[in-house]
Amino acid sequence: DELEFELTGFNLSAFDSAYINYDNNKVVLKFGSHILNGDVLTQFIGEAVLSITATEVEPSQPGDITSITDSFFVLDKIEPTFEIGVMHNTIAPGFMQFYLFQSEDILADSFSVMITGGGVDTSLVMGTNENLESAPYFANSSTDFMGDLTLQVSAEDLYDNPSDTTYTFTIQPILAKLAQNISLGRSGVFMDIPEHAFLEDDYLIAMPDHYGFQYIHQEVSDDPEENLISMFNISTMGNQYQQNVAFGVQSDSLLSWIEVTPGYYRLTDGDWEYIPTFVLMSEQKIWCLIDKPGTYVLKHGAERPPIVLPEEFSLRQNYPNPFNPRTIIEYDIPYNTTGLEQIPTSLVVYDLLGREVARLVDENLSPGKYSIVWNGMNKFGIRVASGIYFYSLRTGSFSNTRKMILLR
């Protein structure tokens, strides 16, 4: 028989709704959703009573009972969740601000926030900021402590669902005009800061698996989670570094990562921007160069393979040899204690009498693999005669010379 349904909800929050799917004679309870840390969070909050009345449209017998009503409870059994935001206090240097964005209302007397680790064991007194979306809890704290720390959050929602959550982060001072190597947690993530990257004292806040404060309530387009190797949000007072800072990870898994094209990306306006990525196999390091704070991820399936840096100087034999009319010369500048710093490099062709014929390279170059074509022309653009020539590489403390033959 054809039935008509009426659904009545009691005590439904504005966050939730209920409706009937008439095609399948099903009652559907629709949960509300919001965004925390770039992800859509779907959650039922509270408790509600749903009453459903089914009425027969055309009863077979006049006077028969033509309707029936049933009710059921929907209870919230999901623990509250939080997303943390840690920011520099730009008004009060030497202090930082903690923000906790909650998924639902919590009991005030059940709420506690502790910072532990690095010789620290302190409780944060949390207030609320009604001026921000979701009215998050917040607290100020000095930056006197440093190292790898843990934020422990304990809370209970209004429906007796307890929650205990921990977040890890790193705080490190950055001294002006001083080279530093900073280890971020136990995952092998590091930052190599050159001497003049920071002109004033600063301090670093680094959070793993976090998109950053500005993306707390903004959905982030991302690849499947299995493509992510590492994600960090880097925060400093300075918004622009004076020199590039190396940011990367040292891992025993590097060899297996190379097979799936790893690469670094920076989160910019909700999208991912590729950053040239470097690999040093002997130290099992992969890294990129950054010039500002932000959110950086290392992913599988990058849009281009990483640059595997050579580890010793090399000047290879030209090919073809003998040649006519052109030949290719390849050489390597290795990664060393100067990192990716550019060094003066020259590649010059000489004749048998030691006279300069052509200067193929004369510039500052970063570590990497290079190749250049000599077309048999001298420095005046005139074709040289057949004969024996020498090409000499000078870069840093390295120099080497090889012989080649031009046959017209």
Give a structural overview.
The protein is mainly beta. It has four domains: 73 residues, no CATH class; 91 residues, Immunoglobulin-like (Sandwich); 134 residues, Chondroitinase Ac, Chain A, domain 3, CATH 2.60.220; 93 residues, Immunoglobulin-like, CATH 2.60.40.4070. The chain has one helix and 33 strands. Strands 11-10-14-15-18-19-25-21-22 form a nine-stranded antiparallel beta sheet, with no helix packed on it. A hairpin with a 2-residue loop joins strand 21 and strand 22. The longest helix has 5 residues. The protein starts with a strand and ends with a strand. The model has no long low-confidence stretch (mean pLDDT 86).
Number of strands: 33
Q: Main sheet: which strands, in order across?
A: 11-10-14-15-18-19-25-21-22
Radius of gyration in whole Å, from Cα? 32 Å
Number of domains: 4
CATH second-level architecture of the largest domain = Sandwich
Which structural class do the helices and strands define?
Answer: mainly beta
Question: How would a textbook summarize the main sheet?
Answer: 9 strands, antiparallel
Uncertain regions spanning at least 5 consecutive residues: none
- The separation of the N and C termini measures 98 Å
- Total helices: the number is 1
Assign a percent range to the helix content. under 10%
Proportion in β-strands? over 45%
